[in-house]
Amino acid sequence: VKMVRITERVVNTYFAKLYLSKPGKNEIISVDVRPSDAINVANRCEAPIYVSKHIVLKDAIRIGYGMGRAHGAKATYDVSLDSAAEGPDSVTEEFDLVKNMDIAVREERYNDAAKFRDKLLKLRKSIHDH
């Protein structure tokens, strides 16, 4: 098992692909599978699991700051997204800035947190201007 990709959601159904190869061979084949089965196989084989960025943005991530979080709860934006092949995109950059800002606040590095906040605001403004 090379990897699993959760590829899309249609209405309320998710779709996945399992990528396989024979030991010592370069040829990779993909098989359509249910996401639950794919995740189970990947977990047992210690293979990476990738999720389409569109699914993550629509279904999994809800960025929340400030008073809405319970004390000690894991941040909802504590994720890492793969960058596009042509380089980092604005979504990945935004998540990295938010994550770094959160870490700086937890470590009481408030000047660093303010710098990350300023970069985040500048990035969001540039996105909305285009």
From TrEMBL:
<dbReference type="GO" id="GO:0004518">
    <property type="term" value="F:nuclease activity"/>
</dbReference>
<keyword id="KW-0378">Hydrolase</keyword>
<dbReference type="InterPro" id="IPR001943">
    <property type="entry name" value="UVR_dom"/>
</dbReference>
<dbReference type="InterPro" id="IPR003729">
    <property type="entry name" value="Bi_nuclease_dom"/>
</dbReference>
<comment type="function">
    <text>Bifunctional nuclease with both RNase and DNase activities. Involved in basal defense response. Participates in abscisic acid-derived callose deposition following infection by a necrotrophic pathogen.</text>
</comment>
<dbReference type="Pfam" id="PF02577">
    <property type="entry name" value="BFN_dom"/>
</dbReference>
<protein>
    <recommendedName>
        <fullName>BFN domain-containing protein</fullName>
    </recommendedName>
</protein>
<dbReference type="InterPro" id="IPR036104">
    <property type="entry name" value="BFN_sf"/>
</dbReference>
<comment type="similarity">
    <text>Belongs to the bifunctional nuclease family.</text>
</comment>
<feature type="domain" description="BFN">
    <location>
        <begin position="1"/>
        <end position="63"/>
    </location>
</feature>
<keyword id="KW-0540">Nuclease</keyword>
<dbReference type="Pfam" id="PF02151">
    <property type="entry name" value="UVR"/>
</dbReference>
